[in-house]
Prior knowledge:
The chain has about 290 residues and is an alpha+beta fold. The chain contains eight helices and ten strands. A hairpin with a 5-residue loop joins strand 9 and strand 10. Helix 3 crosses helix 4.
Amino acid sequence: MSETPKRRRGDRRDAALLRETDALHFIMGIIYPHRADNEAYIAERIDLEPIKAYLAKKNVEGIEFKYTFFHVIVAALVKTITLRPKLNRFYANENYYQRNKVTAGFIIKKEFSDGSEEAVALLDAAPTDTVDTVHEEIRRRVYATRHEQKLNTTDNSMDILNKLPRFLSKAAIRFIRWLDRHGWCPDVLIGDDPNYASVFLSNLGSIRLRSGYHHLTNWGTCSFFCVIGEKKWTPLYDQNGLVAMRETVDLGFTVDERIADGYYYSKSIRLFKHLLAHPELLELPFEQEVDYD
Length: 293
C-alpha cells in the first residue's frame, strides 16, 4: 500500500486538494463542472509481437494462472500513471484534487454466458509493485469472484439497494450522490467501485468486440478510461517501407481534458507505448523512471 499523506482542511479521504494551482485549472472546475462534459478521446494501435514474446517467457510450463495481454496493459497503465502524476488527478465539487494512490478498476465476468453476473474490482498499486504483483492480485480477484467469495462491498451495497422499495432506494441513491460529490461516501457504500479508480479498463477483446469509445461518468472520480479491443492481424510498415502482417490490438482512451494539457497526454502515451514495446521494464518497480524520449 502506498503511504497516505497527512490530511489538511479541504482534502478528501482519497485525495489532496491542489491549493497552489494556476488560474486556468482553478476556473475550469467552476465553469466546466461536469466530468462527462469534458471528454477527449485518444486512439492507439499497439503491435503485440513484443508482448507475445514476453508472455512466452513468463508462462513457463506448470503455471496455473497464465500471464495475459490484459495483465501487461494494466501494469503499463499503472506505471505510466505513477510516473506521470497529473493523470492521477480529478475534479469534484468544482475543486481540483491529486489522488493519494494509484488504482486500476475493471469488471470481472463470472462466466461467459448471457445470464452471468458481473463483479467490479479495484486494484490498489504501490510504487514498489511490478507486473508480477498485478498478475497475482488479478488472479486473487478473479478466483474469489468466480468461486463466490464476497470481497466487494460495492456489489453487496447495490444488492441491498435493489431489494428496497423503489421510493426508498431512489431517495437513498440521491443522498449517496450528495455524499459522493463531497467525497464523504464510506467504503461500505463504494468499496471497490472502479468509478473511483485512477484508470477504469474495459477488456472488450475478451468478448470479441472491437475497441471504441466509452464515456466518463459524473459519479465517482475516474478521469481516465481505457477500452481494449479484440486482437487482429494488421499490415504494418517498417522504416524501409516493407510491409509485414503483425498481430495488433486497438486501444481507446477517454480522458478528462481538464486535468492535463495535450502535450502532457501525448508524452504520457509515448511512455505507455514504450513500456508495451519493452514489457520487461514492467518488472522494475512502478516508481522507477525509464528513458523513453
